[in-house]
Design goal:
It is elongated, with a radius of gyration of 17 Å. Helix content is 66%, strand content 3%. It has eight helices and two strands, in the order H-H-H-H-H-H-H-E-E-H. It has a two-stranded antiparallel sheet. The longest helix has 19 residues. The chain has 127 residues and is mostly helical. The termini are far apart.
Length: 127
């Protein structure tokens, strides 16, 4: 999180609103800053643009949902604010180098029968 209170407040607001469209103008309004000044200060404080930050936070939320729910990929895309599943697939692949399905297979911690630990299962299985 950023040091400056308006940027930190904007980051917190973003996290609470990932399911909504988040144009930079709206985020800047939440920080009570002009769009241009907000974009400049945000980049200086976080090392990334507001748009890149939003995308990364959406992917982080999607990772959580892939790990702990059995929601469909389309449902996860919608809950994380991606306008279309295709956009979600492209962003996810670009950032993580995996498809959402591959990620879920590797890291999901629940199954229909309850919690599972894939690392424990790998360690136990004879190879």
């Amino acid at each position: 999180m950023a040091d400056r209170p308006p940027i930190r407040a904007a980051q917190e607001w973003i996290l609470g609103n990932l399911h909504n469209p988040l144009p930079v103008a709206e985020i800047a309004r939440q920080a009570t800053m002009s769009q241009r000044n907000f974009a400049r200060v945000f980049r200086r404080e976080t090392g990334t643009t507001p748009g890149q930050y939003v995308e990364r936070m959406r992917i982080a939320r999607a990772r959580e949902l892939l790990e702990i729910t059995d929601l469909t990929i389309s449902q996860i895309a919608g809950r994380c604010g991606f306008a279309a599943p295709e956009t979600f697939f492209r962003s996810f692949g670009r950032i993580l180098g995996l498809t959402p399905k591959e990620y879920r297979h590797r890291f999901q911690v629940i199954s229909p029968s309850g919690l599972i630990d894939r690392q424990y299962e790998r360690d136990r299985s004879p190879v």
